[in-house]
Amino acid sequence: MTTVAECLPLARKACDYLTASPDPYHAVNNAATKLRVAGFECLQARKPFAGKMRPGGKYYYTQDDTAIVAFTIGTQLDVDRPYGFKIIAGHTDSPNLRVKPRSKRTSAGECVQLAVECYGGGLWHTWFDRDLGVSGKVLVRNGSSIESKFVLIELPVARVSNLAIHLATADERAAFRVNKEDHLQPIIGTKSVLEEEAKEQLQDGWTEFQEPELLSLISAELGVEAKCIVDFDLCLFDMQPAAIAGIKSEFVHSGRLDNLATCFVSVEALLTHAESSLAGDTDISIVILFDHEEVGSGSTTGACSPIMSEAVRRISSALSPKSTEDFHSAILRQSFCLSIDMAHALHPNYSNKHEKGHAPELNKGIVIKTNRNQRYATSLISDHILREVARRESLTPPQAFVVRNDCGCGSTIGPTLAQNTGIRTVDAGMPQLSMHSCRETMGTMDLMNGLQLFLAFFNHFREVDNQLSEGYCCDIEQR
Ligand SMILES: [Zn+2]
């Protein structure tokens, strides 16, 4: 049995990653940096992969800087025989406030505000009265070329202020309803102070619509002239760093646990697998992290995109140049996807929100999510495979979640990936509280539970699946 103390080094690493990754750009970039440092080769997705990879190799590539595909090829993989892809899939995005395309906002009174848009289904009341920084990606003109730069302003430059209790009616206080357009626009300064430093703005159809102080801030951070900034995708984030918390350090508090805790653990699992168990591997172990799950996954970087099916096809055809359509279909049948997204732990103050028999607990292990109405992709076989993988290593057995019959069910990228690729999929995740809050909570030990299970999946999936496959054949022959 692993203790909290044994989980702390991993939890500290997780906190570092969470704090350093306030948006999908940084989440992907920080993951890519770890992979690169560990010797993963960066593939150029715009060029053919043929001739670029070999059994025993480890690689990654990114899509538009917010999605990433990282994989290892087992040294025992036979390129002439169908093999499988052991996939862990998650998402890099979280609900947040994003700067609108025209960041300048006309405000009442003395305060200067930024125009922001709500991204995803946040618990928006949790964004009030927090010290907010700004981060994301900026396009900068450099002579005749345009460069992409990541920006991370770790200063409390913005704040969404609450209305004083004395100014709210009793009904308003009781409801605490947030109008997403009117009440979430952050304050960044006061006019008299900012106007003292008023700057001339370009009239180029873009710059004049931007808050000049925002452009100044970015230009100072990036060391470029403000007039060279041509566009951006910027997020606001809570400045409070991720923390190990609780009386016995049994919790991690952070923004974006859904789903960066998964991104962190899955990349750690792939790194460990690459280091320790590639030698006996006959398959491809792959982590795919998508963007835009929180808004339905329909984008070039989301789970509805061809990223996963394309990865399987490109990698297998580059590795096995003689592969046919039939060969490719056999590969899909030998593959398996662990769709990992955070799960709802039982909340002691709202325990009636869970069905008693399927109420996951913090620090008690990964949760398999099932929904017979297919809001989750878990099936009889995929559920069994994950449990069996855990059993082989004597790991904490997975917990089970089914939503109450009288409550709507969330969903994940699992059903989307399963229907787009035909790859068997299980939906699972680490339990947490306060999902979609600006600051969420999970169990310290569940990071380790996740790492151990993901690693066991890479190490034992093939033997578990082979036993099952033999079972299928016997059944058919007996009939
Ligand atoms: Zn999620």
TrEMBL record:
Keywords: Aminopeptidase, Hydrolase, Metal-binding, Metalloprotease, Protease, Zinc. GO terms for biological process: proteolysis. One of its GO terms (molecular function) is metallopeptidase activity. Its cofactor is Zn(2+). It comes from the Eukaryota. Its EC number is 3.4.11.21. It catalyses: Release of an N-terminal aspartate or glutamate from a peptide, with a preference for aspartate. GO terms for cellular component: cytoplasm. The keyword Hydrolase applies. Belongs to the peptidase M18 family. NCBIfam families: PRK02813.1. This is aspartyl aminopeptidase.
